[in-house]
Amino acid sequence: MSASTNQLVAKAKEVAAKARKAAVPAAVVGAFLLGGAFFVGHGNVHAASGGAVPMDDNSISALTSLDQAMEAVASRVTPAVVNVAVTSRGNGEMETEGEDGQMQGPGGQQGPGGQGQMQNLPPGLQQFFGPMFRTPRQQQQQIEHGVGSGIIISPDGYIVTNDHVVDGAMQIKVTLNDRRVLNAKVVGVDKLTDLAVLKVDASNLPTVVWGDSTKLMPGQTVLAFGSPFGYFQFSVTRGIVSAVDRPNPYSDDARKPGGYIQTDAAINPGNSGGPLVDAHGELVGINTFIISNSGSFAGAGFAIPSQIVHATADQIIQHGKVEHGYLGISMNDVTPANAHFFNLQEASGAIVAQVTPDSPASRGGVKTGDVIAKLNSEKIVNSGALQVAVSEMTPGTKIALGVVRDGKPETLNITVGEFHANGKQEAENDGQSGQQKGKLGLAVADLSAESRQQANVPDDVHGVIVEQVRPGSAAEDAGIQPGDVIIEVNRKPAQSASQFVNEVHQNADGKDLLLLVWSRGNASYRTIHPDQNDQNG
Question: Which residue from 217, 223, 227 is spatially nearest to 237, judged by alpha carbons?
Protein backbone atom coordinates (compact mmCIF):
# COMPACT_ATOMS: atom_id res chain seq x y z
CA MET A 1 0.00 0.00 0.00
CA SER A 2 1.43 3.38 -1.00
CA ALA A 3 2.04 6.26 1.39
CA SER A 4 -0.77 8.29 -0.22
CA THR A 5 -3.14 5.37 0.24
CA ASN A 6 -2.12 5.03 3.89
CA GLN A 7 -2.83 8.72 4.42
CA LEU A 8 -6.29 8.44 2.84
CA VAL A 9 -7.21 5.41 4.90
CA ALA A 10 -5.95 7.07 8.07
CA LYS A 11 -8.00 10.16 7.29
CA ALA A 12 -11.08 8.02 6.67
CA LYS A 13 -10.64 6.34 10.05
CA GLU A 14 -10.23 9.71 11.72
CA VAL A 15 -13.47 11.08 10.22
CA ALA A 16 -15.28 7.85 11.03
CA ALA A 17 -14.24 8.17 14.66
CA LYS A 18 -15.52 11.76 14.76
CA ALA A 19 -18.77 10.67 13.12
CA ARG A 20 -19.29 8.04 15.81
CA LYS A 21 -18.84 10.72 18.46
CA ALA A 22 -21.54 12.73 16.70
CA ALA A 23 -23.79 9.65 16.96
CA VAL A 24 -23.94 9.22 13.16
CA PRO A 25 -25.62 5.89 12.33
CA ALA A 26 -23.21 3.05 11.56
CA ALA A 27 -24.65 2.65 8.08
CA VAL A 28 -23.60 6.19 7.26
CA VAL A 29 -20.03 5.64 8.47
CA GLY A 30 -19.82 2.43 6.46
CA ALA A 31 -20.96 4.23 3.35
CA PHE A 32 -18.32 6.88 3.84
CA LEU A 33 -15.53 4.35 4.24
CA LEU A 34 -16.77 2.48 1.20
CA GLY A 35 -16.53 5.70 -0.75
CA GLY A 36 -12.94 6.17 0.47
CA ALA A 37 -12.00 2.64 -0.63
CA PHE A 38 -13.53 3.31 -4.02
CA PHE A 39 -11.39 6.37 -4.59
CA VAL A 40 -8.07 4.91 -3.47
CA GLY A 41 -8.67 1.72 -5.48
CA HIS A 42 -5.45 -0.22 -5.78
CA GLY A 43 -3.27 2.60 -4.61
CA ASN A 44 -3.24 4.91 -7.59
CA VAL A 45 -5.69 6.97 -9.59
CA HIS A 46 -5.46 6.43 -13.34
CA ALA A 47 -6.70 8.72 -16.10
CA ALA A 48 -9.07 7.26 -18.66
CA SER A 49 -7.32 5.50 -21.49
CA GLY A 50 -7.56 6.78 -25.04
CA GLY A 51 -6.42 9.85 -26.89
CA ALA A 52 -6.22 12.97 -24.78
CA VAL A 53 -8.43 15.86 -25.88
CA PRO A 54 -6.67 19.22 -25.57
CA MET A 55 -8.51 21.71 -23.38
CA ASP A 56 -8.43 25.47 -23.60
CA ASP A 57 -10.48 28.27 -22.10
CA ASN A 58 -13.00 28.18 -24.94
CA SER A 59 -13.72 24.45 -24.65
CA ILE A 60 -14.55 24.64 -20.94
CA SER A 61 -15.98 28.16 -20.78
CA ALA A 62 -19.54 26.91 -20.29
CA LEU A 63 -18.49 24.77 -17.34
CA THR A 64 -16.44 27.48 -15.70
CA SER A 65 -19.28 29.96 -16.16
CA LEU A 66 -21.65 27.53 -14.45
CA ASP A 67 -19.14 26.99 -11.63
CA GLN A 68 -18.75 30.72 -11.13
CA ALA A 69 -22.51 31.21 -11.04
CA MET A 70 -22.97 28.47 -8.44
CA GLU A 71 -20.08 29.82 -6.38
CA ALA A 72 -21.68 33.26 -6.42
CA VAL A 73 -25.03 31.86 -5.23
CA ALA A 74 -23.39 29.79 -2.49
CA SER A 75 -21.30 32.71 -1.23
CA ARG A 76 -24.42 34.85 -1.09
CA VAL A 77 -26.55 32.37 0.88
CA THR A 78 -24.11 30.50 3.13
CA PRO A 79 -23.50 33.40 5.58
CA ALA A 80 -27.22 33.29 6.49
CA VAL A 81 -27.35 29.51 7.08
CA VAL A 82 -27.19 28.28 10.67
CA ASN A 83 -26.72 25.01 12.49
CA VAL A 84 -29.39 24.32 15.14
CA ALA A 85 -28.38 22.09 18.08
CA VAL A 86 -31.23 21.06 20.38
CA THR A 87 -31.31 19.54 23.84
CA SER A 88 -34.72 18.10 24.60
CA ARG A 89 -36.37 15.93 27.19
CA GLY A 90 -36.98 12.41 25.90
CA ASN A 91 -40.07 10.30 26.24
CA GLY A 92 -38.55 8.28 29.07
CA GLU A 93 -37.91 5.19 26.98
CA MET A 94 -34.66 3.83 25.65
CA GLU A 95 -33.61 4.26 22.04
CA THR A 96 -31.24 1.84 20.36
CA GLU A 97 -29.44 1.63 17.08
CA GLY A 98 -30.71 -1.06 14.70
CA GLU A 99 -28.60 -3.42 12.64
CA ASP A 100 -28.95 -1.14 9.61
CA GLY A 101 -27.70 1.89 11.53
CA GLN A 102 -31.13 3.50 11.82
CA MET A 103 -32.20 4.83 15.18
CA GLN A 104 -35.02 2.74 16.63
CA GLY A 105 -37.48 3.49 19.36
CA PRO A 106 -39.35 1.07 21.60
CA GLY A 107 -40.59 -1.92 19.69
CA GLY A 108 -38.00 -1.43 16.96
CA GLN A 109 -39.85 1.43 15.25
CA GLN A 110 -37.51 2.80 12.63
CA GLY A 111 -37.02 6.49 12.11
CA PRO A 112 -35.75 9.64 13.74
CA GLY A 113 -35.61 8.83 17.40
CA GLY A 114 -38.53 6.43 17.12
CA GLN A 115 -40.90 9.38 16.80
CA GLY A 116 -44.56 8.44 16.49
CA GLN A 117 -44.97 10.65 13.46
CA MET A 118 -42.90 8.19 11.43
CA GLN A 119 -45.60 5.57 11.84
CA ASN A 120 -48.10 7.83 10.11
CA LEU A 121 -46.09 8.28 6.92
CA PRO A 122 -46.46 6.13 3.82
CA PRO A 123 -43.93 3.30 3.33
CA GLY A 124 -40.54 4.66 2.34
CA LEU A 125 -41.26 8.17 3.55
CA GLN A 126 -38.60 9.16 6.05
CA GLN A 127 -39.04 12.35 8.02
CA PHE A 128 -35.47 13.52 8.46
CA PHE A 129 -35.63 15.20 11.81
CA GLY A 130 -32.69 17.22 12.92
CA PRO A 131 -32.90 15.26 16.23
CA MET A 132 -32.23 12.09 14.29
CA PHE A 133 -28.82 11.59 15.80
CA ARG A 134 -29.59 10.72 19.38
CA THR A 135 -27.27 8.84 21.60
CA PRO A 136 -28.88 5.72 23.11
CA ARG A 137 -29.89 6.64 26.63
CA GLN A 138 -31.38 4.80 29.55
CA GLN A 139 -34.89 5.59 30.66
CA GLN A 140 -33.82 7.54 33.72
CA GLN A 141 -31.73 10.03 31.70
CA GLN A 142 -34.54 11.34 29.49
CA ILE A 143 -32.26 13.83 27.72
CA GLU A 144 -31.80 13.82 23.95
CA HIS A 145 -29.60 15.83 21.61
CA GLY A 146 -30.45 16.64 18.01
CA VAL A 147 -29.15 18.71 15.14
CA GLY A 148 -30.94 20.53 12.33
CA SER A 149 -30.50 23.58 10.14
CA GLY A 150 -32.05 27.02 9.76
CA ILE A 151 -31.89 30.26 7.81
CA ILE A 152 -31.66 33.87 9.08
CA ILE A 153 -34.48 36.03 7.68
CA SER A 154 -33.82 39.33 9.49
CA PRO A 155 -30.69 41.25 10.60
CA ASP A 156 -31.95 41.32 14.20
CA GLY A 157 -31.83 37.55 14.57
CA TYR A 158 -35.06 35.88 13.45
CA ILE A 159 -34.43 32.38 12.08
CA VAL A 160 -36.75 29.96 10.29
CA THR A 161 -36.45 26.19 10.79
CA ASN A 162 -38.77 23.19 11.08
CA ASP A 163 -41.02 22.66 14.09
CA HIS A 164 -39.89 19.03 14.34
CA VAL A 165 -36.28 20.21 14.77
CA VAL A 166 -37.08 22.16 17.96
CA ASP A 167 -40.04 20.15 19.23
CA GLY A 168 -39.71 19.67 22.99
CA ALA A 169 -36.51 21.72 23.17
CA MET A 170 -35.15 22.69 26.59
CA GLN A 171 -32.10 24.42 25.15
CA ILE A 172 -31.26 25.59 21.63
CA LYS A 173 -27.78 26.57 20.46
CA VAL A 174 -27.37 28.22 17.05
CA THR A 175 -24.00 28.17 15.29
CA LEU A 176 -23.55 30.99 12.80
CA ASN A 177 -21.40 30.80 9.69
CA ASP A 178 -18.71 32.89 11.43
CA ARG A 179 -18.59 30.09 14.09
CA ARG A 180 -20.23 32.13 16.82
CA VAL A 181 -22.51 30.02 19.01
CA LEU A 182 -25.59 31.82 20.37
CA ASN A 183 -28.48 30.82 22.59
CA ALA A 184 -31.81 30.86 20.79
CA LYS A 185 -35.39 30.93 21.98
CA VAL A 186 -38.53 29.74 20.20
CA VAL A 187 -40.72 32.66 19.16
CA GLY A 188 -43.50 30.41 17.96
CA VAL A 189 -44.27 27.26 16.00
CA ASP A 190 -46.90 26.11 13.55
CA LYS A 191 -47.38 22.36 13.71
CA LEU A 192 -49.75 22.33 10.76
CA THR A 193 -47.01 23.50 8.38
CA ASP A 194 -44.08 22.11 10.44
CA LEU A 195 -42.44 25.53 10.71
CA ALA A 196 -40.85 27.37 13.63
CA VAL A 197 -39.27 30.78 14.16
CA LEU A 198 -36.29 31.22 16.51
CA LYS A 199 -34.67 34.40 17.84
CA VAL A 200 -31.06 35.06 18.79
CA ASP A 201 -29.77 38.17 20.51
CA ALA A 202 -27.66 39.71 17.74
CA SER A 203 -27.71 42.50 15.18
CA ASN A 204 -26.46 43.19 11.66
CA LEU A 205 -26.69 39.53 10.75
CA PRO A 206 -26.57 38.38 7.11
CA THR A 207 -29.97 37.40 5.75
CA VAL A 208 -31.46 35.51 2.86
CA VAL A 209 -33.63 37.23 0.24
CA TRP A 210 -37.19 35.95 -0.08
CA GLY A 211 -38.03 34.33 -3.42
CA ASP A 212 -41.35 33.54 -5.09
CA SER A 213 -42.03 29.81 -5.02
CA THR A 214 -45.16 30.24 -7.15
CA LYS A 215 -42.92 30.97 -10.14
CA LEU A 216 -40.84 27.79 -9.81
CA MET A 217 -40.93 25.42 -12.75
CA PRO A 218 -39.66 21.84 -13.07
CA GLY A 219 -36.12 21.83 -14.43
CA GLN A 220 -34.97 25.03 -12.73
CA THR A 221 -31.69 24.92 -10.81
CA VAL A 222 -31.88 24.95 -7.00
CA LEU A 223 -29.33 24.66 -4.20
CA ALA A 224 -29.91 23.08 -0.78
CA PHE A 225 -27.97 24.18 2.31
CA GLY A 226 -27.60 22.68 5.78
CA SER A 227 -25.73 20.31 8.06
CA PRO A 228 -26.14 16.77 6.69
CA PHE A 229 -25.80 14.06 9.33
CA GLY A 230 -25.38 16.80 11.94
CA TYR A 231 -21.64 16.90 11.35
CA PHE A 232 -20.91 18.43 7.93
CA GLN A 233 -22.00 21.99 8.68
CA PHE A 234 -22.72 24.59 6.00
CA SER A 235 -22.82 22.11 3.13
CA VAL A 236 -24.36 22.97 -0.23
CA THR A 237 -25.74 20.63 -2.89
CA ARG A 238 -27.07 21.38 -6.34
CA GLY A 239 -29.98 19.94 -8.28
CA ILE A 240 -33.15 20.85 -10.09
CA VAL A 241 -36.80 21.28 -9.26
CA SER A 242 -38.18 17.82 -10.02
CA ALA A 243 -41.82 18.83 -9.51
CA VAL A 244 -43.98 21.40 -7.75
CA ASP A 245 -47.25 21.26 -5.85
CA ARG A 246 -46.68 17.79 -4.46
CA PRO A 247 -49.55 16.75 -2.13
CA ASN A 248 -49.50 16.31 1.62
CA PRO A 249 -47.96 12.89 2.43
CA TYR A 250 -48.98 12.71 6.10
CA SER A 251 -51.65 10.13 6.85
CA ASP A 252 -51.89 11.29 10.48
CA ASP A 253 -53.46 14.61 9.51
CA ALA A 254 -54.93 15.11 6.05
CA ARG A 255 -55.54 18.77 6.92
CA LYS A 256 -51.88 19.74 6.57
CA PRO A 257 -51.26 21.86 3.46
CA GLY A 258 -49.47 20.30 0.52
CA GLY A 259 -47.82 22.26 -2.27
CA TYR A 260 -44.36 20.78 -1.59
CA ILE A 261 -41.41 21.37 -3.90
CA GLN A 262 -39.71 18.15 -4.99
CA THR A 263 -35.99 18.34 -5.76
CA ASP A 264 -33.07 16.02 -6.52
CA ALA A 265 -30.62 18.34 -4.75
CA ALA A 266 -29.11 16.00 -2.15
CA ILE A 267 -30.87 16.38 1.22
CA ASN A 268 -29.98 14.21 4.20
CA PRO A 269 -30.84 13.93 7.91
CA GLY A 270 -29.64 17.14 9.55
CA ASN A 271 -30.61 19.29 6.55
CA SER A 272 -34.08 19.65 8.03
CA GLY A 273 -35.00 23.32 8.34
CA GLY A 274 -32.30 24.45 5.91
CA PRO A 275 -32.96 26.66 2.89
CA LEU A 276 -33.66 25.73 -0.71
CA VAL A 277 -32.73 28.63 -3.01
CA ASP A 278 -33.07 29.35 -6.72
CA ALA A 279 -30.41 30.47 -9.19
CA HIS A 280 -30.69 34.04 -7.86
CA GLY A 281 -29.89 32.89 -4.33
CA GLU A 282 -33.44 33.68 -3.19
CA LEU A 283 -35.27 31.51 -0.66
CA VAL A 284 -37.90 29.36 -2.36
CA GLY A 285 -38.34 26.63 0.24
CA ILE A 286 -37.43 25.05 3.59
CA ASN A 287 -36.13 21.47 3.34
CA THR A 288 -38.33 19.24 5.45
CA PHE A 289 -38.50 15.57 4.44
CA ILE A 290 -37.24 12.92 2.03
CA ILE A 291 -38.61 9.73 0.55
CA SER A 292 -36.14 6.91 1.02
CA ASN A 293 -35.99 3.25 1.95
CA SER A 294 -32.67 3.75 3.71
CA GLY A 295 -33.24 6.97 5.66
CA SER A 296 -30.64 8.78 3.55
CA PHE A 297 -31.09 10.70 0.34
CA ALA A 298 -32.34 8.69 -2.63
CA GLY A 299 -33.11 11.42 -5.15
CA ALA A 300 -36.42 12.68 -3.77
CA GLY A 301 -36.30 15.56 -1.29
CA PHE A 302 -39.15 17.89 -0.42
CA ALA A 303 -39.33 21.49 0.73
CA ILE A 304 -42.09 23.71 2.10
CA PRO A 305 -42.60 26.48 -0.49
CA SER A 306 -41.61 30.02 0.48
CA GLN A 307 -45.17 31.10 -0.28
CA ILE A 308 -46.19 29.25 2.90
CA VAL A 309 -42.98 29.90 4.84
CA HIS A 310 -43.08 33.69 4.43
CA ALA A 311 -46.72 34.04 5.45
CA THR A 312 -46.27 31.69 8.42
CA ALA A 313 -43.08 33.35 9.67
CA ASP A 314 -44.66 36.82 9.45
CA GLN A 315 -47.62 35.73 11.59
CA ILE A 316 -45.38 34.07 14.18
CA ILE A 317 -43.14 37.15 14.46
CA GLN A 318 -46.09 39.52 14.72
CA HIS A 319 -48.47 37.47 16.87
CA GLY A 320 -46.49 34.52 18.24
CA LYS A 321 -48.90 32.11 16.57
CA VAL A 322 -50.52 31.33 13.24
CA GLU A 323 -54.20 31.58 12.40
CA HIS A 324 -55.09 29.36 9.46
CA GLY A 325 -58.07 29.95 7.24
CA TYR A 326 -60.73 27.23 7.33
CA LEU A 327 -63.61 26.23 5.05
CA GLY A 328 -64.63 22.85 6.44
CA ILE A 329 -64.51 20.61 3.38
CA SER A 330 -62.75 17.47 2.17
CA MET A 331 -61.71 17.41 -1.47
CA ASN A 332 -60.45 15.33 -4.35
CA ASP A 333 -58.74 16.47 -7.52
CA VAL A 334 -60.66 16.50 -10.78
CA THR A 335 -59.04 13.93 -13.08
CA PRO A 336 -59.66 12.75 -16.66
CA ALA A 337 -61.20 9.61 -15.12
CA ASN A 338 -63.83 11.42 -13.02
CA ALA A 339 -64.45 14.68 -14.91
CA HIS A 340 -67.37 13.35 -16.97
CA PHE A 341 -69.27 12.33 -13.83
CA PHE A 342 -69.51 16.04 -12.98
CA ASN A 343 -70.24 17.25 -16.53
CA LEU A 344 -66.89 19.02 -16.78
CA GLN A 345 -65.20 19.96 -20.04
CA GLU A 346 -61.66 19.91 -18.59
CA ALA A 347 -59.93 17.95 -15.85
CA SER A 348 -59.15 20.73 -13.40
CA GLY A 349 -60.58 21.92 -10.12
CA ALA A 350 -61.37 20.47 -6.70
CA ILE A 351 -64.32 18.16 -6.02
CA VAL A 352 -66.05 18.64 -2.67
CA ALA A 353 -66.33 15.18 -1.11
CA GLN A 354 -67.54 16.21 2.36
CA VAL A 355 -68.86 19.36 4.02
CA THR A 356 -68.53 19.72 7.78
CA PRO A 357 -71.86 20.71 9.40
CA ASP A 358 -72.03 24.32 10.60
CA SER A 359 -68.72 25.12 8.93
CA PRO A 360 -67.98 28.26 6.83
CA ALA A 361 -68.48 26.19 3.67
CA SER A 362 -71.77 24.77 4.92
CA ARG A 363 -73.07 28.20 5.87
CA GLY A 364 -71.98 29.53 2.48
CA GLY A 365 -73.99 26.93 0.57
CA VAL A 366 -71.24 24.53 -0.54
CA LYS A 367 -72.57 21.03 -1.22
CA THR A 368 -71.06 17.60 -1.67
CA GLY A 369 -70.40 17.07 -5.38
CA ASP A 370 -69.67 20.74 -6.11
CA VAL A 371 -66.55 21.32 -8.16
CA ILE A 372 -64.59 24.40 -7.05
CA ALA A 373 -63.15 25.93 -10.22
CA LYS A 374 -62.23 29.45 -9.05
CA LEU A 375 -61.22 31.35 -5.93
CA ASN A 376 -61.76 35.10 -6.21
CA SER A 377 -61.78 34.78 -10.03
CA GLU A 378 -58.45 32.90 -9.99
CA LYS A 379 -58.51 29.42 -11.55
CA ILE A 380 -58.12 26.51 -9.14
CA VAL A 381 -56.06 23.77 -10.78
CA ASN A 382 -56.45 21.16 -8.04
CA SER A 383 -57.44 20.66 -4.42
CA GLY A 384 -53.89 21.23 -3.15
CA ALA A 385 -53.78 24.71 -4.64
CA LEU A 386 -57.05 25.65 -2.94
CA GLN A 387 -55.92 24.14 0.34
CA VAL A 388 -52.71 26.18 0.41
CA ALA A 389 -54.49 29.39 -0.63
CA VAL A 390 -57.22 29.11 2.02
CA SER A 391 -54.78 28.05 4.74
CA GLU A 392 -52.86 31.30 4.28
CA MET A 393 -55.94 33.49 4.55
CA THR A 394 -56.79 35.42 7.67
CA PRO A 395 -60.00 34.24 9.37
CA GLY A 396 -62.82 36.63 8.54
CA THR A 397 -61.68 37.14 4.94
CA LYS A 398 -64.54 37.31 2.42
CA ILE A 399 -64.04 35.10 -0.63
CA ALA A 400 -65.96 34.20 -3.77
CA LEU A 401 -65.91 30.54 -4.75
CA GLY A 402 -66.73 29.73 -8.34
CA VAL A 403 -68.29 26.26 -8.36
CA VAL A 404 -69.75 23.97 -10.99
CA ARG A 405 -72.88 22.23 -9.71
CA ASP A 406 -74.48 19.62 -11.97
CA GLY A 407 -72.67 21.16 -14.92
CA LYS A 408 -73.84 24.72 -14.19
CA PRO A 409 -71.51 27.49 -12.86
CA GLU A 410 -72.41 29.31 -9.65
CA THR A 411 -70.69 31.80 -7.35
CA LEU A 412 -70.81 31.34 -3.59
CA ASN A 413 -69.81 34.07 -1.14
CA ILE A 414 -68.12 32.69 1.96
CA THR A 415 -66.43 34.08 5.07
CA VAL A 416 -63.27 32.15 5.89
CA GLY A 417 -63.27 30.67 9.39
CA GLU A 418 -60.38 29.81 11.72
CA PHE A 419 -58.82 26.38 11.89
CA HIS A 420 -58.66 24.74 15.30
CA ALA A 421 -56.49 21.70 15.87
CA ASN A 422 -59.31 19.75 17.50
CA GLY A 423 -61.80 20.51 14.75
CA LYS A 424 -62.18 19.87 11.05
CA GLN A 425 -59.93 21.68 8.63
CA GLU A 426 -60.39 23.49 5.41
CA ALA A 427 -59.31 21.57 2.35
CA GLU A 428 -58.58 18.03 3.31
CA ASN A 429 -57.03 15.85 0.64
CA ASP A 430 -57.62 12.20 1.30
CA GLY A 431 -56.33 9.09 -0.32
CA GLN A 432 -58.51 6.81 -2.36
CA SER A 433 -60.82 4.01 -1.36
CA GLY A 434 -64.21 2.50 -2.32
CA GLN A 435 -65.21 -0.80 -3.93
CA GLN A 436 -67.53 -3.88 -4.20
CA LYS A 437 -67.58 -7.58 -4.99
CA GLY A 438 -67.49 -9.24 -8.41
CA LYS A 439 -66.96 -6.40 -10.85
CA LEU A 440 -65.46 -4.33 -8.10
CA GLY A 441 -64.11 -7.04 -5.83
CA LEU A 442 -65.87 -6.17 -2.60
CA ALA A 443 -68.75 -7.35 -0.44
CA VAL A 444 -71.09 -4.82 1.16
CA ALA A 445 -73.85 -4.96 3.76
CA ASP A 446 -76.50 -2.65 5.11
CA LEU A 447 -75.12 -0.22 7.68
CA SER A 448 -76.62 -1.51 10.93
CA ALA A 449 -76.34 0.00 14.38
CA GLU A 450 -73.88 -2.71 15.34
CA SER A 451 -71.62 -2.26 12.30
CA ARG A 452 -71.83 1.50 12.72
CA GLN A 453 -70.55 1.17 16.27
CA GLN A 454 -67.80 -1.30 15.36
CA ALA A 455 -66.47 0.93 12.55
CA ASN A 456 -66.99 4.18 14.51
CA VAL A 457 -69.21 5.60 11.77
CA PRO A 458 -70.86 8.92 12.74
CA ASP A 459 -74.66 9.09 12.83
CA ASP A 460 -74.76 11.56 9.94
CA VAL A 461 -72.98 9.15 7.55
CA HIS A 462 -75.37 6.93 5.58
CA GLY A 463 -74.73 4.21 3.03
CA VAL A 464 -73.51 0.61 2.88
CA ILE A 465 -70.53 -0.78 4.80
CA VAL A 466 -67.69 -2.67 3.14
CA GLU A 467 -67.24 -6.09 4.72
CA GLN A 468 -64.65 -7.69 2.44
CA VAL A 469 -62.25 -6.61 -0.31
CA ARG A 470 -60.77 -9.17 -2.69
CA PRO A 471 -56.97 -8.93 -3.05
CA GLY A 472 -55.90 -7.63 -6.45
CA SER A 473 -59.39 -6.36 -7.26
CA ALA A 474 -60.47 -3.01 -8.67
CA ALA A 475 -61.68 -2.12 -5.19
CA GLU A 476 -58.28 -2.81 -3.62
CA ASP A 477 -56.60 -0.81 -6.39
CA ALA A 478 -58.74 2.16 -5.38
CA GLY A 479 -57.74 1.76 -1.73
CA ILE A 480 -61.07 0.64 -0.31
CA GLN A 481 -60.86 -1.28 2.96
CA PRO A 482 -63.24 -3.23 5.18
CA GLY A 483 -65.05 -0.79 7.46
CA ASP A 484 -65.32 1.93 4.80
CA VAL A 485 -68.81 3.23 4.05
CA ILE A 486 -69.95 3.78 0.46
CA ILE A 487 -72.23 6.81 0.51
CA GLU A 488 -72.91 7.21 -3.22
CA VAL A 489 -72.53 5.27 -6.45
CA ASN A 490 -72.46 7.31 -9.67
CA ARG A 491 -73.77 10.37 -7.79
CA LYS A 492 -76.77 8.42 -6.40
CA PRO A 493 -77.22 7.65 -2.67
CA ALA A 494 -76.34 4.09 -1.67
CA GLN A 495 -79.49 3.35 0.34
CA SER A 496 -79.05 -0.39 0.79
CA ALA A 497 -76.69 -3.22 -0.11
CA SER A 498 -79.09 -4.64 -2.70
CA GLN A 499 -79.68 -1.27 -4.33
CA PHE A 500 -75.95 -0.68 -4.45
CA VAL A 501 -75.30 -4.04 -6.13
CA ASN A 502 -78.05 -3.33 -8.68
CA GLU A 503 -76.49 0.01 -9.55
CA VAL A 504 -73.14 -1.70 -10.09
CA HIS A 505 -74.63 -4.43 -12.28
CA GLN A 506 -76.50 -1.86 -14.37
CA ASN A 507 -73.23 -0.12 -15.13
CA ALA A 508 -72.04 -0.96 -18.64
CA ASP A 509 -69.17 -3.43 -18.86
CA GLY A 510 -65.83 -1.68 -18.81
CA LYS A 511 -67.33 1.65 -17.79
CA ASP A 512 -65.90 3.37 -14.71
CA LEU A 513 -67.94 3.96 -11.57
CA LEU A 514 -67.72 6.91 -9.22
CA LEU A 515 -68.07 6.10 -5.52
CA LEU A 516 -68.26 8.53 -2.62
CA VAL A 517 -66.57 6.71 0.25
CA TRP A 518 -66.33 7.55 3.94
CA SER A 519 -63.09 6.21 5.41
CA ARG A 520 -61.51 6.93 8.81
CA GLY A 521 -63.36 10.17 9.40
CA ASN A 522 -63.29 11.68 5.93
CA ALA A 523 -65.17 11.23 2.67
CA SER A 524 -63.60 11.20 -0.78
CA TYR A 525 -64.60 10.35 -4.34
CA ARG A 526 -63.05 7.22 -5.84
CA THR A 527 -63.08 6.36 -9.54
CA ILE A 528 -63.29 2.57 -9.90
CA HIS A 529 -62.22 0.63 -12.99
CA PRO A 530 -64.31 -2.58 -12.81
CA ASP A 531 -62.97 -6.04 -13.63
CA GLN A 532 -64.63 -6.80 -16.97
CA ASN A 533 -64.20 -10.56 -16.67
CA ASP A 534 -65.88 -10.95 -13.30
CA GLN A 535 -69.67 -10.68 -13.22
CA ASN A 536 -70.44 -12.11 -9.79
CA GLY A 537 -71.68 -8.92 -8.23
Answer: 223
pLDDT in tens, 230-248: 677 888 999 999 999 888 7
Angle at 344 between CA 340 and CA 348, to 5 degrees: 105
Give the whole-angstrom CA distance, residue 445 versus residue 465.
5
DSSP designation for 53 = P
Q: In sequence order, what DSSP letters do the residues of 175-201 get, joined into one string? A: E-TTS-EEEEEEEEEETTTTEEEEEES
Residue 284 has a pLDDT of: 96
- Tens of pLDDT, residues 119-176: 444 444 444 434 444 444 444 446 788 889 999 999 999 999 999 999 888 899 999 9
Q: Do residues 84 and 174 lie in contact, with contact meaning Cβ atoms separated by under 8 Å?
A: yes
How far out from the chain centre does Cα 423 lie? 21
Q: Which residues are catalytic?
A: 164, 194, 272
Is 111 a residue whose pLDDT tops 60?
no
Mention every residue, 6+ apart, whose C-beta is less than 8 A from residue 310: 210
For residue 131, give every residue at least 6 positions away whose Cβ sits within 8 Å of its Cβ, in sequence order, or none.
Answer: 86, 88, 112, 113, 144, 145, 146, 147, 148, 164, 165, 167
* 236, β-bridge pairs: 225
Q: In whole angstroms, give the CA distance from residue 353 to residue 459.
A: 17
Half-sphere exposure of 442 (CA within 13 A, CB side): 33
